[in-house]
Amino acid sequence: LAKRSGNQFVVVELYKPGLNFTMQTYSRGYFDDSFIDVRPHRELFKRRRNLLGYGITMANVIQDSNSTKNHLPLEDRQELQYDAVSKVCWVYAKLAFEMLNATPNYIYSYRWGYQVNGKWSGMIYDVHAKKADLGTNCIIFRDRLDMVTFADKVAPLRMRFVFRQPPLSYASNIFYMPFSTNVWIGIGVCAAVCTVSLYLTSKWEVKIEKNPYQLDGSIGDALLLTMSAVTQQGCFIEPRRAPGRIMEWVFFAALMALYAAYSANIVVLLQSPSNSIQTLRQLAESKITLAANDVDYNRFIFDSYQDPLHASVHKRIIPDQGKPQFYETFDGIERIR
């Protein structure tokens, strides 16, 4: 609206927040040979931040429990395990309503919105049909861009698999893992040194006396006694003199300590999970049974990917023959346990 004021025209914006609201004015500028814009911001959303209590309807998706309809507007923090995404979005949206001095209204739907046989459902339909002014945290699909306008995300939304790593014994050779490579090499070197020492002492003993129960001075008998010690087995031949027996005692004592440490590590490794699955490809190639939470977007999301990796995951969850692997949250967690 332009109004003459002396030798110039004063330009004022006129608008209503709603049909039943009184007319509001906002100074736009004045005209004196040329138009002078006095607005601090030209963007409309920066200038009209007071909607004077105008009602804005928000579409909310309820999929876990109907009780969310009661807890959501009250914000009583009850049953937080149900419809967590919708409750988080509601908190952020209410802050926006307070900043705009708008009155929040809400409607509920059981789907985010998908096109089936040319017809839309859920939140997308509510917004497109003007039953709601906005919806929150709806995943961007290409076909949805023709129906609604997307802004920034309110809360992060990602689809992830929750699983228990397979036992370490399924993915690795746990019999080699208790000791490092250097320790295994050290054990082999010690066994070789012990064999040579027993061989030398047995040759010395044979020169002094001969007995059917003593080593005959050959490398074979020394190696046989060493292997008996390594495998924790007895041997009917043994050194008869102090030098050989001292060497035998030291070797058996060292192996006893090694076996105690080895057994303790094996027990720990048997109870340890592995870290063999770090990527989606590794998960798809594993023998773990894959399933999905029984919500509507999980039944549609896999169809939007055509690459071999996602297609293989899709076939494992929704096989061509057999029952689809969809479970409720508590049932799925119990199966993982």
Automatic annotation (TrEMBL):
Keywords, in A-Z order: Cell membrane, Glycoprotein, Membrane, Receptor, Transmembrane, Transmembrane helix
Gene3D superfamilies: 1.10.287.70, Periplasmic binding protein-like II
Cellular localisation: Cell membrane
InterPro entries, sorted: Insect_Ionotropic_Sensory_Rcpt (IPR052192), Iontro_rcpt_C (IPR001320)
GO-annotated cellular components: plasma membrane
Superkingdom, natural source: Eukaryota
Family stated for the protein in its record: Belongs to the glutamate-gated ion channel (TC 1.A.10.1) family.
Protein name: Antennal ionotropic receptor 75p-2
Gene: IR75p-2
